Automatic annotation (TrEMBL):
Key words, A-Z: Signal
Protein name from the UniProt record: SnoaL-like domain-containing protein
Domain of life of the organism encoding this protein: Bacteria
Residues in SnoaL-like domain copies: 34-133
Organism taxonomic ancestry: Bacteria, Pseudomonadati, Pseudomonadota, Gammaproteobacteria, Lysobacterales
Originating species: Dyella tabacisoli
The keyword Signal belongs to this UniProt entry's keyword annotation: yes
Entry annotated with the keyword Secreted: no
Length: 141
């Protein structure tokens, strides 16, 4: 009976968690890893988001307007602003393409204050060994 109860508890916990919540630690599928990172971003959970990235991650704004982000500490520092934005602030995927380890998202940012620009970035993710290793943001227009 004890074994049956354990199975029920494990099943209940697993059904309450979205698949993407498990992806960063349990899946090497690039699309699931990127979705888990986006879900954490939208929940403003920098720790969970950082768990989706490789220790030596590099994030590059190809427009050259921002310096590259290298490593988890720099990633956490850069995205610390998420703790201060309205709960409605989020990025929604408009279009997603997956080709092997590469995931390309066209995103639409919502919940941005009226006096701020509303970016619609394109993000190119490279996923290796279940972690995001590189991200490139091509210039918009």
């Amino acid at each position: 009976m004890l074994q049956f109860n354990r199975i029920i508890v494990v099943f209940a916990v697993c059904t309450l968690l979205p698949l993407s919540a498990l992806a960063c630690g349990k899946s090497s599928d690039p699309e699931q890893v990127v979705q888990a990172q986006l879900d954490a971003y939208n929940k403003h959970d920098v720790e969970a988001m950082a768990a989706c990235y490789a220790d030596d991650v590099t994030i590059v704004d190809l427009s050259g307007k921002r310096p590259p982000i290298k490593g988890i500490p720099a990633l956490k520092e850069t995205y610390a602003f998420l703790a201060k934005v309205p709960k409605t602030f989020a990025a929604k995927v408009v279009t997603r393409m997956v080709n092997g380890p590469i995931v390309i998202d066209r995103e639409h940012v919502i919940g941005v204050p009226e006096d701020k620009s509303k970016p619609d970035p394109i993000a190119v993710y490279e996923v290796r060994d279940g972690k995001i290793l590189n991200v490139w943001f091509p210039p918009s227009k």
